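Key result, reporting period 2: structure in, sequence out.
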């Protein structure tokens, strides 16, 4: 993954022209046989305990969003199989992201959690520790408590778990289009190629 991130960073400022000639098993893998329905969506699967995911969030997520075709949505899902602070910490951090999305403070809380874990070396994995991050970043305690117990948060966490299982994601960061096609990141040689591939997969049945 470090090699991949280095390649992508080196090519970020020197994009190449790519024809949409993509091969299954080379540029992408089909991870589900379910039909594609709804809004075309690129989902980034990640973990706050993954240092490469932190680099990806800071360097690539913004440019990836900017390069998606009109009508293609970008989404994020937190995986629960990396328990960096002990058993259950992965699920606690999935709930943290779901709460942040429900309260519409995703960017602020996402970066705060990444910085606390990756830059400061804090072991965050309990509900109380997660809650403190929200309070430290200006979220009212009453708002947090209400959201933490809400149906939308529970539903989102369950959906991420279901999608994680269905797609077979075992490594992060990972990009999956329409919960059906996973990008083979080792095949990517430029940001422009990644945009082209994502937009191609977004229209693939």
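The corresponding designed sequence is given below.
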């Amino acid at each position: 993954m470090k090699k991949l991130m280095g390649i992508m960073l080196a090519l970020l400022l020197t994009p190449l022209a790519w024809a949409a000639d993509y091969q299954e098993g080379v540029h992408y893998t089909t991870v589900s046989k379910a039909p594609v329905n709804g809004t075309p969506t690129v989902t980034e699967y990640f973990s706050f305990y993954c240092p490469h995911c932190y680099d990806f969030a800071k360097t690539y997520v913004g440019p990836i969003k900017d390069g998606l075709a009109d009508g293609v949505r970008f989404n994020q899902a937190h995986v629960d199989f990396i328990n960096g602070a002990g058993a259950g910490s992965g699920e606690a951090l999935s709930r943290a992201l779901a709460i942040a999305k429900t309260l519409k403070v995703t960017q602020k809380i996402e970066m705060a959690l990444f910085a606390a874990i990756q830059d400061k070396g804090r072991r965050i994995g309990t509900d109380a520790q997660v809650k403190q991050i929200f309070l430290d970043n200006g979220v009212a305690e009453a708002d947090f408590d209400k959201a933490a117990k809400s149906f939308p948060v529970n539903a989102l966490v369950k959906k991420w778990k279901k999608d994680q299982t269905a797609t077979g994601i075992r490594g992060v960061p990972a990009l999956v289009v329409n919960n059906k096609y996973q990008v083979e990141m080792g095949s990517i040689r430029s940001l422009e190629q990644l945009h082209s591939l994502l937009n191609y997969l977004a229209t693939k049945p």
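The first strand starts at residue 28 and ends at 30. Confidence is low (pLDDT under 50) at residues 9-18. This case is discussed further under Risks and Mitigation.
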